[in-house]
């Protein structure tokens, strides 16, 4: 059963990245994976459910990459900022751009309501709480700060992905985000 699900996710990920969600044919996708549409419906309910699974997989990979970035930093605060920078830079990657930042919101709605974003929010809240407790940043409500940082980074990534000049927009977004986040340590 897990092998079947993995085949479908792998085939969908490739199709969504190459042609986009709307143009990906479920018949071609399932046939390419050596499966039937029935397998897709059984495991994911529909094409939208399959997109959710693909997004969850990509999001997990992104989280692992970001953790490595954060671990390399000299301080926990710098690590958090470096992770946000890396997240925004990922908005230039074609697969992330198309599946996560363009098709995902168009099909699944507001990304801030996705389960993966809730996990990210909880982790950021935990980390800010620890930074405040350690005196690395001045006292601030951890959840409020996490929501503002996550919201700013998400909307900046969506802006980059939808832009006709993503590299130029990324530079603007990184500068503004850095200034915004650094305000937390100057309070």
Mind explaining what this structure looks like?
- Pfam families: TetR_C_41 (PF21351), TetR_N (PF00440).
- The chain is mainly α.
- The chain folds into two domains: 1-45, Arc Repressor Mutant, subunit A (Orthogonal Bundle), CATH 1.10.10.60; 54-184, Tetracycline Repressor, domain 2 (Orthogonal Bundle).
- Helix content is 78%, strand content 0%.
- It is built from nine helices and no strands.
- Helix 7 (115-133) crosses helix 8 (142-162).
- It is elongated and about 55 Å long.
- The mean pLDDT is 94.
Detail the topology: elements first, then pairings:
Layout: H1 2-19, H2 26-32, H3 37-44, H4 47-71, H5 76-90, H6 94-108, H7 115-133, H8 142-162, H9 166-182
Helix pairs in contact: 1-2, 1-4, 1-6, 3-4, 4-5, 4-6, 5-8, 5-9, 6-8, 7-8, 8-9
A few lines on this structure:
The longest helix is centred in the N-terminal third of the chain and has 25 residues, at about 45-70. It contains nine helices and no strands.
Q: How many strands, which pairing sense, and closed or not: the largest β-sheet?
A: none
Radius of gyration: 18 Å
> Which CATH class of the largest domain?
Mainly Alpha
Number of strands: 0
Count of individual domains: 2
Distance between the termini: 53 Å
Mean pLDDT: 94
Question: How big a fraction of the residues is strand?
Answer: under 5%
What fold name stands as the CATH topology of the largest domain? Tetracycline Repressor, domain 2
Question: Low-confidence parts, pLDDT < 50 over ≥5 residues?
Answer: none
What series of H and E elements makes up the topology? HHHHHHHHH
According to CATH, the homologous superfamily of the largest domain is Tetracycline Repressor, domain 2
**Overall spatial form:** elongated
Based on secondary structure, the structural category is: mainly alpha
Helical stretch count?
Answer: 9
Instruction: Give the % helix.
Output: over 70%
| CATH architectural type of the largest domain | Orthogonal Bundle
């Amino acid at each position: 059963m897990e092998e079947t699900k993995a085949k479908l996710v792998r085939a969908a990920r490739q199709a969504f990245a190459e042609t986009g969600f709307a143009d990906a044919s479920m018949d071609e996708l399932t046939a390419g994976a050596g499966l039937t549409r029935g397998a897709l419906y059984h495991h994911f309910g529909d094409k939208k459910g399959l997109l959710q699974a693909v997004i969850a997989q990509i999001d997990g990979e992104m989280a692992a990459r970001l953790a490595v970035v954060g671990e390399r930093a000299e301080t926990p605060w710098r690590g958090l900022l470096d992770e946000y920078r890396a997240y925004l830079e990922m908005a230039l990657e074609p697969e992330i751009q198309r599946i996560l930042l363009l098709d995902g919101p168009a099909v699944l709605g507001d990304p801030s309501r996705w389960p993966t974003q809730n996990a990210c929010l909880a982790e950021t809240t935990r980390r800010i709480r620890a930074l405040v407790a350690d005196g690395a940043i001045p006292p601030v409500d951890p959840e409020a700060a996490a929501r503002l940082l996550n919201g700013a980074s998400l909307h900046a990534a969506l802006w980059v992905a939808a832009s006709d000049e993503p590299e130029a927009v990324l530079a603007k977004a990184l500068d503004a985000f850095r200034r915004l986040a650094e305000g937390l340590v100057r309070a």
